[in-house]
Amino acid sequence: MGVAGTLEYLSDLMGSSGHKHKKKKKQLQTVDLKVRMDCDGCELKVKNAVSSLSGVKSVEINRKQQKVSVTGYVEANKVLKKAKSTGKRAEIWPYVPYNLVAQPYIAGAYDKRAPPGYVRKVEGTATNASVTTLEDPYISMFSDDNPNACSIM
């Protein structure tokens, strides 16, 4: 074992100091937020607040879309909390491109305030329960159990 090996061994011994687990590293990710910004001052305030978080590599702001993109080794909830601490209304980016949604103009997805080409992200589109409730009146209208139910014949 050379000098470098000895120094590495000693630093491992001193660094562990009784702890057997290593700290989990965060993944590099991009967090998109929707933040209400009206002017250059608002934009600068949000940018400075979010940039002060540890692990942030870059902050991009699109004031027209009210979108803040934060790239770095950060957690989404911490970025959101920091953006809200500026006094601005903030939420995780709720929009997806309209071509990724099966039915982009249903009540839950369509949003007038969405940027052009985007709709609100919805988990489930049409459920089977709503389809069966629409079919029930037609099925019972032609029931074999009730001969008076058919108004056509």
UniProtKB/TrEMBL annotation:
Q: Which Gene3D superfamilies match?
A: 3.30.70.100
GO MF annotation, one: metal ion binding
Task: Report the superkingdom from the record.
Answer: Eukaryota
PANTHER family, alphabetized = COPPER TRANSPORT PROTEIN ATOX1-RELATED (PTHR22814), HEAVY METAL-ASSOCIATED ISOPRENYLATED PLANT PROTEIN 23 (PTHR22814:SF336)
All copies of the HMA domain together span: 28-91
Keyword terms of this UniProt record: Metal-binding
This protein's name: HMA domain-containing protein
What Pfam families does its record include? HMA
Keyword Metal-binding found? yes
